[in-house]
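Tutorial handout. Part one gives the primary structure; part two gives the three-dimensional structure as tokens.
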Amino acid sequence: MEDDGNASSEVQTVSSNVPRTPNTELKKLLVFKVYKRRWFILLVLCLLNCSNATIWLTFAPVADQSAQYFKVSLEEINWLSLVYMVVAIPLSFGTTWMLDTLGLRITLVLGSWLNVLGAVIRFCGSPPAPGYTVLFPVVMLGQTLGALAQPLIVFTPTKLAALWFPDHQRATANMIASMSNPLGILLANIISPMVVETPEQLPSLLIAYAVPACVICLLATLGIRSSEPPTPPSASAGSSGSEPFARGLRLLLKNKAYLVLLLCLGSGMAVFTCFSSLLEQILCVQGYTNDFAGVCGALFIVFGIVGAGALGLYVDKTKKFTEATKINISFTALACIAFSVVSQMQQQKAAVAAVCSLFGLFGFSIYPVAMELSVECTYPVGEATSAGLIFISGQVQSVLYMILLQALTQRLTESPLSTCGNAVLSWRVPMLVMAGLCSLFSCCFVIFFHTRYRRLEAEEEATYGRSDGSAADKHAVTADT
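Part two.
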């Protein structure tokens, strides 16, 4: 029962499966309060994540028009997107420290200001008025500021879910916040080509992305008043990030289950980055148009968001983090193998579209659940630290995979159905290698990943004064929300 303003709803934690013992009978009933404002903070984070993603991929769907407008090469235009990857790797360590040490509010507000400054500076570098000089370095500066904001934003969902949401809503909140990033990617791929039909329309696109960034920055600065709620929503929220940053890193490096998750999930993120970045180049060789590649990319994201939503709700109810992740990562590997085969076939639009949809359905849904799983297996290490290292692993492996796959391509002397430009490359070997890597790390995760749910066990012990290592099986929550 939620009231208004700062009022709260009471969440009573009980367990019908736990045998009644003198210890549980004598334990005081725990009552946790959750606050309406958690939904506002989640909304701001989703909008910010979506805005940052649109700024990231503003120029990729209209690369030719952008190159003509700025009078630069396509390689230089590609750097407007690649700068995000380059900046994120070294900055990520500082971001994890900031989230776990300085708090959620400072991190989000700083991220929103960097995001809006980047959007506005990009527009200043490409004035629409005739007679003004277009300054590509200024636009690159704006993109770099947006890249600085990215880790501050994408590391936050797990922390927000832990601090503001009760245990039966954490995976759902994490899923909603995490999936706003691919939603922004989808919007960028739709809006940019719609607005920019000629190079002269590029400033209109930049102002279209800058205005929402300004509104979101205002909401974050004025609307987010604290990093934590007045009272914790769960037994574990009070000790969130209790381990110092340096000690937390050492604990993570000694945690075998986490290291398996770090390597395997990072590999999965790299495969998805390669798929998103190279999809058009892979399909054009077999005669598929750019419009069809765009449809496949949209299906990949839309079905991914649907899958993540369904799996997030399921995991919140059952707490079967490991089982859900292992099943989905297995189906993801099968979908990756299928894509490596059908993408090399001609005139198979239905099969290619179906495989891309399944690839997104199973693959995207892993990310938010695996982020929650990283917290469960590393508690009480800070959520930003455990999730941040996985993001860094994904970025590093993405760079390596991109270099490897492009190095394995072979130039074709003839390809009569090709819709590519002058350079026609064979992606048969790179696709088989990508499928092999995805299958290898999926098998490693299924075989070698085993962990206790440390956070659920800690909450059970705080509630009942006992923990027998089966928190997921004995977890039952009754909530009035």
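Part three, for discussion. The beta strands are 8-13, 31-35, 410-411, 425-426, 477-479. The first strand starts at residue 8 and ends at 13.
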